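Students often ask why we bother predicting the structure of a whole assembly rather than each chain alone. The short answer is interfaces. A chain on its own may look different once its partners are present, and contacts between molecules only exist in the joint model. In this exercise we take two input lines together and write out one structure for the complete complex. Read the inputs first and try to guess which parts will touch.
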Amino acid sequence: MTPRRSVENALLAGPLVLFLLAVLGFPTLLSLIYGFSETSFQTLTTPQFSGLKNFRDVAADPAFWQAAWFSLRFGAITALLQCGLGLALAVYLAPLARRHGWTVAILIIPMIVAPAMMGLMYRLVLHEFAGPVPHYLYSWFGWSPSFLGPANVFKTVVVAETLQWTPFAFLLFLTACQSIPEDLREAAAVDGTRPWRLFWKIELPLMMPTVFVALFIRFIDGFRVFDNIYTLVGAGPGGSTTSMSIYIYETFLRRGEIGKALAAAILLFATAFVVLAAAPRLLRGRSA
Amino acid sequence: MARLRIENLTKRFASQTVTQDVSLQVEDGAFCVLVGPSGCGKSTLLRLIAGLEQADSGRILVDGRDLTHVPAYDRDLAMVFQSYALYPHMSVRDNIAFALRTARRPEPEVAAKVAEAARVLQLEPYLDRKPAQLSGGQRQRVAIGRAIVKAPKLFLLDEPLSNLDAELRVHMRVEIARLHKDLGATIVYVTHDQVEAMTLATKIVVLRDGRIEQAGSPLELYDNPDTLFVAGFIGSPKMNFLAARSRGGHLMLPECSGQMIRCPDLRSALADGAGVTVGLRPQVLGRTGDQSLEGMIEIVEHFGSASLVHARPDGSARLLTALVDNGRDLASGQRFEARFRTEDLLVFDQAGQRIR
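Now the answer. The structure tokens for the assembled complex follow.
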């Protein structure tokens, strides 16, 4: 690249870099400072450098590892469920959606509800004493699972998250499915391909890049889950629904351990960064 | 190897009838070309045979088996698409092998048949490439390879040469003719190019507005077109058409300042003053013959072997073309007497039906 071009590039990219520094740089810097310091709400302006103490505290905290394990499980399971269901729905409903576009609008309604509202709604609907679902299960079958009890709460939040975000995966897959040229399906049909093999050998391979993107997005979204779980059950019985985000929030605001909370946040950020950097490379490896 | 029979086939899209009461028989080993202008229903007819469209009425039979309501994947045909429709995520080898693997043939047999097809189509160096890494002509050969490995009863080709450049098209035309000879398969081939139809077909079916206008061997259609439409569609350069009026055993050409030509014997007598259309192929206009039209040469195209003369008959608004064998001395601005034999004259009535 010639020097002249690199000056032009710097000029053109400048505003974006400044904007990102202002929006992301300042909080990042502050987080780093507090993460390596002894801080409380009283000493926000005079943080005391404490080296890696906060990180050691985090690493020694079983609640942190419980939260990390919860987020990992929650992210992976919901991503797989949403993508599986979304793919099945997309392939099954693609012919209907092609003829009647408005059906798609109905199917994506869950996405337009704020996740926090969704959590509140489930809290009302599933409430052990006041909720309509346990009430009718009792009156019809004489039995109802304790949806929000320790034994079932993980399943409940997984189902709630899956029901809300499957439409997102569905929408991505529907677009991918419809972008497959029709003549490929016709050529496969003339080649003797029945619908099932058509899906496995033609449609799915061509949708695979989208499947990876959807899995990735849904995993990240599930991993950092906060609002719907927090409004539904909070940290959960015995911290059983404490995600990474809830752990950081509780450590920061409930217990006032600012340094420790930010050390956990930095760890979360670093992990996310590594995953984000690795994912495109994995994707490129697949599609090449 | 198969005999295709189509009986009274009709297909409507919404309110529009695209294939109307088409009946057709294609003999075993025939090369049948469906030809016509765009929108004539030729591609729809092919898609009906392939099972990619469902007929509203009528029957499709291959070797006596009724395929009308059999799904495309059970018809055991092969089709080459205009867009080639190669599977983009598969290598050339996997594309060609796909139909065989779908039919669960043993892998050694698949490998042998793919190798054979690759050899015939000269695709051996490209077997491990993806379609995106191939040129148009190579993709076209892969599409043909995908069809021939199945050794199907019936080949369907939908304008397979239309995406190739002129030189490659001539080359592939010869290749397809050779394949037909080698495989001995029955082929149904769609094109809008009448030169392709003339050179490849053993049987041409001219379609117009969803109906069969005329079917027959290329030379039958060339020599004896039933209608004005077929006469104008088949043959290159295009046939000359002149409006004429019957006048006492002669035909008067109002467009050519009233020049009179002798009328040949007609299938039905013509009332005096009745309007007809006279058709003359450029090939029958020349320097010999018992009749003539006179005019002025505007342009001459010398091909070397022959000369294509564009002459304006006296008083005419349109040009007459004549393909003259010994016309090297002709030049624009000269007087030209286009001679022809009375028996080469074609006459069509006002409905476009041939009456001579």
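Check your guess against this: Chain A has twelve helices and two strands.
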